[in-house]
Specification:
Strand order of the largest sheet: 5-4-3-7-6
Oligomer: single chain
Number of helices: 3
Length: 167
């Protein structure tokens, strides 16, 4: 069995202003607050003696590794992102940053999504990645257009009910 994995798909390097600010704040918090706390706790655990049987030491080493991994990722990702903080000229069509209200054609079920960058997706708030199949199908659509998207549960058809911009 090989350890080789195909390279991951490149994600779109777009982000909203609020998402960019959140990532920068997370990076700052990890680097200036959380990492020094964990380093201090790690040093205290190391001072307790035998490290091979010290659960606190093992836990803190793992925690420090996770923080350092996230800091490395954010340090590379944040500068590469392009902040989109203004609505497009054509506000009637679906583009990055749009709030889209959809009605499922077969069930009449209504849902509302915001198209955002892959670094700020959140299913609980209805923020979907611009790289998702639904968002890709919605791009450049207008009110009353019908859209078919391949979702994890199978193909689904939607009608665009409304398109808005703004937080």
């Amino acid at each position: 069995m090989s350890r080789w994995r195909p390279p991951p798909e490149k994600s779109t390097a777009l982000i909203t202003r609020s998402g960019h600010d959140r990532l920068k704040a997370e990076l700052d918090d990890l680097w200036r607050v959380r990492r020094p706390e964990v380093v201090k706790a790690l040093a205290a655990a190391a001072a307790e003696g035998d490290r091979s049987e010290n659960a606190e030491y093992t836990y803190r080493k793992k925690q420090l590794g996770e923080i350092d991994r996230r800091v490395r990722y954010l340090s590379k990702r944040v500068p590469a992102l392009r902040v989109i903080d203004e609505a497009p000229a054509d506000r009637d069509a679906v583009f990055f940053g749009a709030w889209v209200e959809l009605e499922r054609i077969d069930s009449g079920e209504s849902s509302r999504y915001r198209i955002v960058g892959p670094d700020e997706t959140d299913a609980t708030t209805g923020w979907i990645s611009i790289d998702s199949p639904l968002a890709r199908a919605l791009l450049k659509k207008r009110v009353d257009d019908e859209v078919e998207a391949q979702l994890p549960g199978g193909p689904a058809r939607f009608a665009v009910v409304a398109v808005e911009y703004g937080d």
